[in-house]
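User: Hi! I'm working on a homework problem where we have to compare a predicted structure to a textbook description. Could you give me the structure for the chain below?
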Amino acid sequence: MPGKPLRDVIAPDLDVLFCGINPSLTSAARGHHFARPGNRFWPAIHLAGFTPRRLAPEEDLELLAHGLGVTNLADRPTRTAAELTTEELREGAAALDALVARYRPRVLAVLGVTAYRTGFGRPRAVLGRQDERVGGARTWVVPNPSGLNAHYQLPDLARVYRRLREEP
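Assistant: Happy to help. Predicted structure tokens:
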């Protein structure tokens, strides 16, 4: 998509498409997903068995070789996701629905329950598999891997993310 500060890493028929909330300032500056020091995405997906080794943010395109992809709910880089407006999250949800319908991943994993609740108008959504599908894909809401999310430690993130692999 032209104008995106951080390109989507996506291809048709992926196993799992991870959807972050929005790029950090660091990720936007470096041009790679989850590039902020302290973000636990890369170690979590490795420990969950998605990649044979821990990838670096600069290797984000290698996700495709493992049937994985990554995008964001909102495009605007911010210091924290709390800076995003409801309108940005809702517009992002509509765009994500279209993106998922076009590329048909088996599972969509939204990384953050608050952003999911706001963007998709589901104020009571909880972590886990959702009854509703986005763009036709089975949809999960999983904890955000940001180092700012102290509720989940790395082993917890890996355990939750591992469930995405087991999704039929």
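For your comparison, note the following. DSSP finds five helices and five strands in the chain. The beta strands are 16-20, 68-72, 107-111, 128-129, 138-142. Good luck with the assignment!
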